[in-house]
């Protein structure tokens, strides 16, 4: 197999994990608690889904009436395209039909598919499917999972296809766990259509120049979240070897990711609960963090802000800009704070440019670098024990972890 195919396959395998019903239910309930009519009268699109595996379609179909939906549409991505992880997958298929490449399981249509009158062996692995629910198709007196109707899509169900794009344009809310390898493209695809959304993504994406401006402008925020920040997903048979030890649990067939979150522009209550914080003087006396009590709040060398290494140590009465951990976003209440930037990408905000620096790592190894300019910098007197520091023109510095820059909103 060519390297290109291998890489594509690897990427594809890492996109094959499935959200649990309980996580979807818990998240959706947080929006309903805030506003029971969040989804009422709306068309929901669940792209990048696969109802034969995924629980998104099941959850929304089972709760169609309770949520007051107008229409539910879900689309799946063709097996051949998954296997090769690309738009041109069918072009790469050898004669005889089977996709080359990855170690995803071989294509085995389910009984659900083969027993349906519309089953077409020629389309089964190369085409995506569309599932639609909008009326009581079986005359049972209620609209539910049993009323879902399906057919093959014209293409493979790629969310970037004209066909799925048209479905997006007709929808009010887009809900899914999209392929992580295409997350930024997927988010741009939602934003360009100006839709409401609720999608799972990697927390690290928030630092990026495509996503962070959406946070600053209030067009995207974190959802209610996974229990204790731990997200467990079901993996497809044949893909479990792609996960490192400690990520895959063979007894449950689940993988655990610590850095997943829900991104949304739907309102939920937790987002409007202000953090309970102490004043600066109380923090300096009583903070449970020793360095706050011992050292206090240090000022950055390359930006006019103070370093606050823990969200619970944010002083309630400081009026200037504060650099706080990225995990603060999970506690961000827009009535309490304003987000003004992020140190990781700075967006041109840093006030100082350092010339080449000598980096000295924890083992004392010295290297010439330029990366001090990539983040918030603190001046130090003594080299820190057991961590990396920098020397520039006889002065010593350390770089903090990426920080979100915030300012408190004054109460009127
Ligand atoms: C992380 S999984 C989640 C599946 C399902 N939404 C869930 O949460 O249970 C992402 C899915 O997107 C599919 N996918 C990958 N690339 C895609 C693309 N370009 N267009 C549509 N779906 C894609 C993958 O095959 C995979 O099944």
Explain what the structure shows:
With 412 residues, the protein is of the alpha+beta class. It folds into 2 domains: 2-272, no CATH class; 275-412, no CATH class. The protein contains 12 helices and 21 strands. It has helices at 3-13, 21-34, 56-62, 64-67, 79-84, 89-92, 111-114, 162-170, 183-191, 212-216, 280-286, 290-294, and strands at residues 17-19, 43-49, 71-76, 129-133, 149-152, 173-176, 196-202, 221-222, 231-235, 248-249, 254-257, 260-264, 305-307, 321-325, 337-342, 357-360, 366-369, 377-380, 389-392, 395-399, 403-408. The protein has an 8-stranded mixed β-sheet with strand order 5-4-3-2-6-7-12-8, with helices on both faces. A 5-stranded antiparallel β-sheet has the order 17-16-19-20-18, with no helix packed on it. It is elongated and about 75 Å long. The chain binds S-adenosylmethionine (SAM).
Overall geometric form: elongated
- State the low-pLDDT regions, or none: 1-6, 88-102
What integer value in Å does the Rg equal?
Answer: 25 Å
Helix content range of the residues, please? 10-25%
Look at the helices and sheets and give the structural class: alpha+beta
